[in-house]
Amino acid sequence: MRPPVQPGWIDAPHGRLNLPRLVLESGEAIEDFELSYAVHGDIDDRSLPVIVALCAIGSSHHRLDFLIGEGRALDPGRARIFAIDAIGNGLSSSPSLSRRQPRLNFPRFTIRDMVNSQKLLMQHLGIETVDLVIGASMGGMQALQWAVSYPDIVRQVVAMTPMAKTTAWSGAVNHAARLALQSHAADPDICPDQLPNRWESWSAVMQLLGARTPQHIDRQFSGPDEIRRWLSDRTRLWLEQGFDPLDWIYQSFAYDGHDVGDTPGFRGDTIAALRSIWARTLIAIPPLDLYNPTEAGRWAARHIADCELVEVMSDSGHQVASATDPAAASELNRRIAAFLR
């Protein structure tokens, strides 16, 4: 079931890839695999370029809606845009959805498994070349993985607030957020009335302290009382989406373990993996990011042969690649459109 459409989201036709099983790089498999996606543009017009838009941790195919539309960077009148739901987001195959491998019986997956499943979707649709892969946060990490895994298919990449290899700091943020959720995730029937409190604790870590900067918070809120009201409202909105804590936890494990250097053939050499990228690449970062450190984006950009690094001057931190900061969203639309031209 799709979550209720929120302000700023774009409703679009949906599709679903169904496979008997998806073999993971661990050797385990997801049985009765399903991959959900939305399509913007004329899917039947083969003359239009193909864009693969990827979602962040805990998000859906709506994650990049701020870039989609007439006159924006991703114009459905000029491209076929496939916005794909990553494994574990509660719309594609996830621990909370599986009947044959429910909850903790669901196998662990990686970001490369997400990308491999997306490649299978393109293959299923008869698409041999992807003109652009774009994403923010975990979506940006998937975009770089696409360019490493399938260099002969991907022509251009836009990775916003990405990492090529997850930093210890990002893993610490994820772990703090997991601690807020894990007891409920293990057994949702224990104290179900505590779920709002657990999501509020998670929101304090992920959507407030990790996603913003001190300057942004001081500008947005007048004081602690207003922050508490905002957290309560955010928790209510999050509960309305129906996202399961265990799904987020599984995605966070994939996030923690990510390194493009672990792609087959590179033996853990992250630099060699980045140097193998053929695609024209744009990496966008803010001056300060308290989730995916900006230095991780700078470091990746230094090792990609044809890479433009864009620093978006915003104090919104990790939220820079979203509709949260209208000025930053406008700048990203402009810079990405210029890059694609």
Describe this structure in words.
The structure is a single chain. The chain is of the alpha/beta class and 341 residues long. It is built from 10 helices and 8 strands. The protein folds into 2 domains: 14-167 and 260-340, Rossmann fold (3-Layer(aba) Sandwich); 170-252, no CATH class. It has helices at residues 111-124, 138-149, 168-186, 195-209, 214-220, 224-241, 245-256, 270-275, 294-302, 326-340, and strands at 14-23, 29-40, 50-54, 80-84, 132-136, 156-160, 280-285, 307-311. The protein has an 8-stranded mixed β-sheet with strand order 1-2-4-3-5-6-7-8, sandwiched between helices.
Strand content: 15-25%
Tell me how many strands there are.
Answer: 8
The CATH architecture of the largest domain is 3-Layer(aba) Sandwich
CATH H level of the largest domain: which superfamily?
Alpha/Beta hydrolase fold, catalytic domain
Radius of gyration, CA atoms, in whole angstroms: 19 Å
Taking the sheet with the most strands, its summary is: 8 strands, mixed
**Structural class determined from secondary elements:** alpha/beta
Features:
341 residues; alpha/beta; Rossmann fold; 2 domains; eight-stranded mixed sheet; 37% helix; globular
Helix-strand layout with pairing:
Elements: E1 14-23, E2 29-40, E3 50-54, E4 80-84, H1 111-124, E5 132-136, H2 138-149, E6 156-160, H3 168-186, H4 195-209, H5 214-220, H6 224-241, H7 245-256, H8 270-275, E7 280-285, H9 294-302, E8 307-311, H10 326-340
Parallel strand pairs: 3-4, 3-5, 5-6, 6-7, 7-8
Antiparallel strand pairs: 1-2, 2-4
